[in-house]
Fold this sequence. Notes:
2 domains; eight-stranded mixed β-sheet; 11 strands; 29% helix; 11 helices; globular; alpha/beta; three-stranded antiparallel β-sheet; Rossmann fold
Amino acid sequence: MENVATKQTYTFKDFKSDQEIRWCPGCGDIAIISAVQKAMAQMNIAKEDFAVVSGIGCSSRFPYYMNTYGFHGIHGRAGVLASGVKTANPKLSVWQITGDGDALAIGGNHFIHEIRRNIDVNILLFNNQIYGLTKGQYSPTSVFGQITKTSPMGTVEQPFNPGELVLGANGKFFARSIDVNVNETVDVLMEAEKHKGTSVVEILQNCVIFNHGVFNRITDRETRDDYQLWLKHGEKMLFGKDKNKGIVWENMELKVVTIGEGGYTLDHILVHDAHASKPFVHLALINLGFENAKEPMAFGVIRSVEAPTYETLVEEQIATAKAKSKIKNMTDLLNSGSTWMVE
Length: 343
């Protein structure tokens, strides 16, 4: 949402509150809030037109640390609050901050229906695959067999892949980023704001206390080039230190290849189409590297498809009802229907 009325130039410091950040030193949330503040400063939106809403969890302290309007809700209900804020005042840029436990466990039902309705809200889903605030229980995204405070012999549950849930709820925008990749996260957040409809951004986030190093394969300097596939609409799906690896579509699935080997050339590499209406390739990208640790994981904007938004349709219905109604004011209302005079 671009507010052309504002002429004020912001910096990321304008979005910092005067509250002391109480996340653990080294927490991935610190890098994420930096990315959010940098992105908001570039959006040409008046600061008073931002609303930051959260539920419960480490990530949900976010509104306190932002110099914007904000609301700290209750466990799993951030989506309800964000939906209400946006529907009541569609001009606001609404940011919902949530975690893998807050959104996908107690808040799971609200999460999928918020997406289904396509309300123009930006959902930032911090995924550290653990419950951090309540001290290390396994979460809906904890990997199978993970040893935690509540699974001392390893979890026996299959984890959610958040992107699959988004597509399953007919989601129109899904992106993925990593806490330590601040500049890339800023770019993704800018795209999320531009999108009209529910934008879900999963951010892989390191919990230094209860799940430290869970994403080392993806973030380690020695290996990250081979495990981070950054997508851009209209560009080839290339990765690797020398950009000599890529993704092809073969036998109805994605395949990782090396250019120059096995007869594969640059011409074989897929071009990313984030706007494709059919989500088959988007779903395959979301699952890339999820179960097979030898594959890279897809980052950036994976899916971005336009569709009517909930709050716009509600406003149109209200306008239509007003135009057709014979009741224009309180006097009309009091004198409508069956009326009589008591003498």
